[in-house]
Specification:
This protein has 59 residues and is mainly α. The chain has one domain (1-53). Helices cover 92% and strands 0% of the residues. The protein is built from one helix and no strands. It is rod-shaped and about 85 Å long.
């Protein structure tokens, strides 16, 4: 009986750790996704401002 309860406790702890790890990974992925989006927006803005500068007529 003790062996079984020990195994069940261990399994329960492993499940909690797994859920915590999954939650942390999801938060990290969400932050990484936002960061990538931000970088794409910044590079797009830089590209647009460069294009405007190149398209301005020179005298």
């Amino acid at each position: 009986m003790t062996w079984l309860s020990f195994n069940l406790t261990r399994i329960h702890v492993e499940i909690i750790l797994l859920k915590t790890t999954i939650r942390i990974n999801l938060k990290f992925e969400k932050l990484l996704f936002r960061f990538k989006q931000r970088m794409e927006e910044v590079s797009l803005l830089k590209f647009c401002s460069r294009a405007k500068t190149l398209n301005q007529p020179t005298n």
